[in-house]
Amino acid sequence: MNAAVRAVVRMGLYVGAKVYFIHEGYQGMVDGGENIREATWESVSSMLQVGGTVIGSARCKEFRTHEGRLKAALNLVQRGITNLCVIGGDGSLTGANLFREEWSGLLTELVEQGSIEADAVQKYSALHIVGMVGSIDNDFCGTDMTIGTDSALHRIIEVVDAIMTTAQSHQRTFVLEVMGRHCGYLALVSALACGADWVLIPEMPPEDGWEDKMCQKLSATRSRGTRLNIIIVAEGAIDRHGKPITSSLVKDLVVKCLGFDTRVTILGHVQRGGTPSAFDRILASRMGVEAVLALLETTANTPACVVSLCGNQSVRLPLMECVQMTQEVQKAMDEKRFEEAVKLRGLFALMFPMSLVLLTFLLCILHPQSNFNVAVLNVGAPAAGMNAAVRSAVRVGISEGHKMFAVNDGFEGFCKGQIKEIKWADVGGWTGQGGSLLGTKRYTFNTYFIISNPADTKALGSALQAFLSLLELLTARGKYDELCVPMVMVPATVSNNVPGSDLSIGADTALNAITTTCDRIKQSASGTKRRVFIIETMGGYCGYLASVGGLAAGADAAYIYEEPFDIRDLQANVEHLTEKMKTSIQRGLVLRNENSNENYTTDFIYQLYTEEGKGVFDCRKNVLGHMQQGGAPSPFDRNFGTKISAKAMQWISKKLVETFRQGRVFANTEDSCCLLGMRRRALVFQPVVQLKDETDFVHRIPKEQWWLKLRPLMKILAKYKTSYDVSDSGQLEHVMRNRPKELDASVAM
User: Fold this and answer.
1) What's the whole-model pTM score?
2) Do 292 and 298 form a contact (C-beta atoms < 8 A)?
3) Known catalytic residue: 139?
4) d(CA 589, CA 535)
5) Domains identified in the chain and CATH numbers
6) Catalytic one of 137, 139, 508, 637
């Protein structure tokens, strides 16, 4: 929430508005006085890394009454406030809309009471409302992700990863209860992210007899050599008859039926606290800026809107349409229309069947064998989330009836015959593992001349090397019929430089590593004299990590190859930072992409800032290096990898059937060699040959990159005077049509 507050304040000041904090939510609005204070640029400094909300939040019974809203209206009119940006859940946003609808009547009543002058009714005739959804449950219809959800997932996954080590040591079963009284998003996504054995959520109660099925699944898992079981339970989980399914009930069931040593862990409010993730900081910053733009464009006839995220794009939706649909979900659940409730949730309808496939081995036993062989290999540098993608591909492939093969060490291993069949249990526990367990090499297909292979199709996951390899394989089809098999690439690279996709597996984990490190580096200067840190990030020639990491960490500047700079720009940045240091901030942060400029190196920039900042600040430099590639994958990367690989494998199954003729697979069309990428709002299969013109092969980056539009936002929030392109800002849409059929991944940024 603090990132959203910061963005609203600074964007508001940037456009010339007077911005106020209302402390303690609606209670502060009703009480007035010191609860409503004017905000300054400096008052939102050093907020990004702080969890919760620094302006406070409180439930207010008085605001639910007409008298309470009358007091609130008086407090706003006295300060000339006619625009409200509300960050909260559906209850808070519904209250804001009611306040807006009553506004003119409240002012008339205040005039009759003599509390305000008659001309104030005309002067403050309309109250404009824009909402941003802050809820860790992700229970608001109309947006893919709400502010706080990703951070809550981080807390859950951190706990699960820690528990899995002790559970494995002692051969225990753990039942974890997560938040979600009416929404099972946290439970479902964390189950997918950690590879849980069973998940229970309120929207999809299990069928009668679920107890026996669950125990069979747990027993089967143990019989295959697994030393632990993980069961995720949402706090609002119920059965088909509305009876609560508690974590203690599940524990007693496992102990009684199986005799397993079982423990319960209730995460509770741990999920609400802690440092916000990079995803949440960027999401909140984008939403905050979009909210200010929406307020600027609103009129008396414009309905109150909520700023939402669909795929990778900001959208504006009528607030009450979203609220009504959210309430319809609860109504459907209360009336035991659970399938309808899942459909109304949107992405749940697509995620839940996938969770059944990935978590339930029994499904693959019942599926008829296809007699197709499918190989999976990693190409290029390792990226966190690769293993989750491989696990998903293997298990979905097995559930489709295919025989799955794993290729070790990329094309080098393919050439040397390092290919072996991979079974369901072989990929158990892979989701939380960093790096590439299959092994990976940077070599492309051309490096190793391959003529024959044991697979009817290939699925590749990695960076630009995989893209180049697919182009080479496509060309070689004309000479070798053995290469006429369906092939698909899933983008996986920390650099996020794959053409045809806004996002890549591994980039979010790298962003979190950068953000966390920057937080610690800035904290190291706390209480000391003014200091500026120069930090070098990875990315090759792609400035994604430096730019988006800079936005998440609150950087003052980020130097990248895509935006050329010279000595005059460097000098202007130094002067700007010097001025800020003299008046307000104590710490500065400057990021530089490793290949941003061959002459203006990290050492050069460090020496320049050191020399020019003498007497005002001193400098330190840090090269983050390969720590950006390591570590456990973030929840986002685990789930993005899981979902995109599942979709890729389903596409492969379809293509295998389409291209099977006269006892063999023969695929030689362009659309049988594709890259599956995230494009704005949808996951799209794109023939690699069509992406050649979109690629700068010399610098290994796409010619157009969506995130460059975020750079002015970073500069505005760092107090630079710059223009902001509003051409890509969200337009008011309707909640029923904001989700294309192809969209089946809860992804953003």
Assistant:
1) 0.91
2) no
3) no
4) 8
5) 1-146+276-332 (3.40.50.450), 150-272 (3.40.50.460), 362-504+635-696 (3.40.50.450), 507-629 (3.40.50.460)
6) 137
